[in-house]
Design brief:
341 residues, alpha/beta, 6-stranded mixed sheet, 12 helices, 18% strand
């Protein structure tokens, strides 16, 4: 069961209006971990404008960028407890509560495009399972936001899984570390802010940091001249989530407006990043060598990942259920030869 709300932030007041007896005015406080200048941040701002406009001013949103109220990892709990009403960060921050959140945010090595991930959520039965998980913690999932495929970056060629053997690279903690260890690599957990310095000093030979455009902005391609593209090993999905009781208190038309606007923001974010990433790759051509792994190499990676999924999900019914759901859908669309087992 989820924690008791310590205070109610969403407010509703009756406002007299011309041509109608009354209208409900709703104020929501929402935190995200994006900067206002980022592509994701700009689409979050558009979501806010869409909701406020389509609701005819009945909804007012106070949006807090760059985790201005609490730390990014604390946003989910802040929404549960009523400090804010909504959390636009990432489910992976909550794997300490339940490893199932990993398979909501980034299954790693599974899908090859954001659209396959969206398809699992909306067409593969994923939303029902995810909603059950979020509801159990007093939250409601509005939508995902999938910026796109991330790239691996190295000082040596990355032609396929065979080049991962003994490769010492920066990895985030958790599931990814297990996957790459299964494939013979030597992942080193290093904070995102320390990636460039660690490459420059030779502590690591490469890094899993972000997508190609973000990698360039970090200066990674000044040091690592080999990269995978289009990557598929990691494709994190940020979430749009509201406190469940706040969600239930909203009129149905407002709920519909918020969900439709959230889906628009999600899909626009994916489109915007796909253009930006491809533009970056085109501009780096000749200076950086990009490797597009063959279907056979991707299948080899995926098999290594599946072992890590099973291990990571152990002990959590919700996580195991999500893994089986992903596998069944991957089988349906031809990514694996055997699905739920």
């Amino acid at each position: 069961m989820f924690a008791q709300r310590t205070m109610i932030v969403a407010t509703a007041t009756i406002v007299a209006g011309l041509g109608s007896a009354s209208a409900q005015e709703i104020t929501l406080r929402i935190q995200n971990h994006q900067s206002p200048e980022s592509l994701s941040g700009k689409n979050i701002a558009q979501w806010q404008d869409d909701v406020e406009t389509m609701s005819g001013g009945r909804v007012k949103i106070e949006m807090f960028y760059s985790s201005a109220i609490v730390k990014s990892v604390e946003t989910f709990d802040a929404a549960i407890n009523g400090i804010v009403d909504g959390d636009f960060t990432n489910g992976s921050y909550q794997t300490g509560k339940d490893p199932a959140f990993q398979f909501v945010s980034d299954i790693m090595g599974g899908y090859e495009t954001p659209w396959q991930m969206y398809a699992w959520l909306y067409n593969g039965g994923g939303l029902e399972l995810v909603q059950k998980l979020y509801n159990s913690y007093g939250m409601y999932l509005l939508a995902w936001q999938v910026p796109g495929m991330e790239s691996l970056n190295a000082a040596k060629p990355l032609r396929g899984p065979e080049d991962l053997k003994d490769w010492k690279f920066r990895s985030p903690p958790g599931l990814e570390t297990q996957i790459f260890q299964n494939l013979g690599a030597s992942p080193v957990v290093i904070d995102f802010t320390e990636v460039f310095t660690s490459l420059e000093t030779g502590i690591i030979d490469g890094a899993d940091a972000s997508n190609a455009s973000t990698n360039r902005s970090l200066g990674i391609y000044d040091l690592a001249k080999h990269s995978t593209y289009p990557g598929f090993h990691s494709m994190p999905a940020d979430h749009f989530a509201l406190n469940l009781e706040v969600w239930k208190s909203l009129p149905e038309d407002i709920q519909r407006i918020m969900e439709v606007a959230a889906q628009k923001a999600s899909f626009r974010t994916t489109l915007d990043y796909s253009v930006d990433i491809q533009k970056t790759v085109n501009e780096l051509a000749g200076d950086v060598t990009f490797y597009d792994w063959s279907p056979e190499d991707r299948a080899t990676f995926r098999e290594g990942a599946r072992k890590a999924w099973a291990s990571f999900a152990e002990g959590s019914d919700a996580a195991e259920e999500l893994v089986q759901s992903h596998l069944a859908f991957m089988k349906q669309i031809g990514l694996v030869t055997s699905g739920a087992e």
